[in-house]
Amino acid sequence: MIVLALLAAAATPQPTEPRTFQDWTVGCDNGRACHAVALVPEPWPDDALTMSVRRGPDAGALPVVAFELGADSNAAAVVADGRRLAVRLVGSEGETRVAPADTAAAIGALRTAGELRLEAADGKPLGTVSLKGASAALLYMDEQQRRVGTATALVRPGTRPLTAAPPALPVVVARPLSSARPLTVSTATLRALRKKHGCTIDEVGGPDEAETAAIGPSETLLLLACGSGAYNVSHVPFILRRGHGGAQLAAFDVKPGWWAEEGKPMLINAGWDKERGLLVSYSKGRGLGDCGTTSEYAWDGRAFRLVEQSDMEECRGSTDYITTWRTRLVRR
User: Fold this and answer.
1) Per-residue pLDDT tens digits for 206-218
2) Domain extent listing, the chain
């Protein structure tokens, strides 16, 4: 019984919680992949920029230093406290990154400088990044990845090799992508579900929406809109099965959204990603989208399993969310 209880506990998703150090926030997921993000300092300066440092958990993983600028930006130079750094900027994957060979110089500036400024080739300033808390955020990354005192550490290097292996990601076994047609849901059924689960439009407001998607050979997901605010729409997820009357509240391996307050699963801005076969939700802390939670779930035939989650707890200008939970998705 003890072994079974331990296995059940290990199978329950436990997203990590990011930490904030002054103008930087940082988090590492359950696989020890880490991500630090610069925030806009308060009060907000007009020329504020944000940036990030990402690093994988493996011993040989190099940090990736990037700025929240498009890959086609005209940024050509990085200046730390008035001193131009010997680093090159390259467009990569939709953002502006420090060239891999120059990341050591950039990390050195993050440890010691108070501010970075980006400049165009003609010297025109493009914006500034606050480095208050950057060194502490990088140290936190080192601590979580067991790098402190090793040759791979960013802040407190030593001579020891990194021997700590990253933990294996949990495996989620999901149903294959379905090509079936979703079951039809009558207007009367939707009206009855709204009444039963407290989603009457006149009472809670919001759009009178219902989305269906085939998630298995005989199962259909129903997302019923159940109230809205200025930039969030709540959805209650149901499962309908061919040959079985009625709709049941969908089951989850971790209670999503406002379950505790509502007594039922309540997803925010939910939708079915047909291409990937995932139930996705995006809860925004405010309209700008610079804080909130994004979650992705896979259907295993009995319940939705949390595949990935990303969070940004600070509403301070960055939409570069930090991954706090990852799995290895297998379909069969």
Assistant:
1) 788 999 999 999 9
2) 11-144, 171-331
